[in-house]
């Protein structure tokens, strides 16, 4: 099983770097399909996100230092929301989390599809209260379904806050640091974290992150948008198949 875990980590890492996600968006369905229980898949994904988000944000910072001011405020909100992870897990069932995941992916597909790949105007300044609130809400929901929050945050940043898509994905990956660390602490303290599997997948994901970001920087904005939409549709299909059929 160790080889499979390494392959899962490489895949999740590449997705994390290229799409600006924590990796849990693709890793959770993969682990679920591989036979892990939904809550186990979520916990492993959260640990992997700690690895990929920190390393990916370090690589992104070389080209997008100016975006991390908003990212810190969003991240603080996300970490506060992520601390509620174990509480939410104790209240709801696996099947409920699966349906929430499906709804969020559908929302992401619709919002990114109708938004332009690039915005010509300058990014508007947003109040810290707004950023903190958005981060908190995303953190609560995202950590409860095993994703770093980027799959929710990217469409919000692009469609409502008018960030260019590539900047939004860099910012969202930075946000994942805060939410995933909080979720990791929460699940670890409650005894729900599979450390062995998470460590193998997380370490392998670092290689994938490196190549994912390299590929992202070489991809045009329109093709990048298409890639994000395709990725979301594939993940939606997997989750619907495993949940409904």
From TrEMBL:
Cellular compartment(s): Cell membrane; Membrane
InterPro entries, sorted: TM_pro_TauE-like, TSUP/Inactive_protease-like
Chain segments annotated as transmembrane: 6-34, 41-59, 71-92, 99-117, 129-158, 170-189, 195-215, 227-244
Lineage: superkingdom: Bacteria
Main location: membrane
Record carries keyword Transcription regulation: no
Membrane topology: Multi-pass membrane protein
GO cellular component: plasma membrane
A Pfam family that the UniProt record links to this protein: TauE
Keywords on record: Cell membrane, Membrane, Transmembrane, Transmembrane helix
Family: Belongs to the 4-toluene sulfonate uptake permease (TSUP) (TC 2.A.102) family.
This protein's name: Probable membrane transporter protein
Originating organism: Halarcobacter anaerophilus
């Amino acid at each position: 099983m160790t080889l499979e875990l390494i392959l899962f980590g490489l895949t999740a890492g590449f997705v994390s770097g290229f799409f600006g996600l924590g990796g849990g968006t693709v890793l959770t369905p993969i682990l679920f399909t591989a036979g892990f229980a939904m809550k186990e898949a979520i916990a492993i994904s959260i640990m992997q996100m700690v690895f990929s988000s920190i390393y990916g944000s370090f690589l992104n910072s070389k080209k997008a230092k100016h975006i991390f001011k908003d990212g810190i405020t969003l991240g603080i909100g996300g970490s506060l929301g992520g601390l509620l992870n174990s509480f939410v897990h104790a209240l709801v069932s696996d099947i409920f989390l699966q349906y929430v995941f499906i709804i969020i992916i559908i929302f992401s597909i619709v919002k990114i599809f109708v938004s332009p790949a690039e915005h010509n105007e300058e990014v508007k300044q947003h109040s810290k209260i707004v950023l903190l609130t958005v981060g908190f809400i995303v953190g609560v929901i995202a950590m409860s379904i095993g994703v770093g929050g980027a799959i929710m945050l990217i469409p919000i940043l692009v469609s409502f806050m008018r960030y260019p898509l590539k900047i939004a994905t860099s910012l969202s990956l930075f946000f994942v640091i805060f939410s995933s660390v909080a979720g990791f602490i929460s699940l670890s303290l409650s005894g729900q974290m599979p450390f062995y599997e998470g460590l193998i997948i997380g370490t392998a994901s670092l290689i994938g992150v490196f190549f994912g970001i390299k590929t992202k920087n070489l991809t045009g904005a329109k093709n990048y948008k298409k890639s994000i939409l395709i990725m979301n549709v594939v993940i939606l299909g997997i989750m619907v198949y495993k949940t409904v059929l």
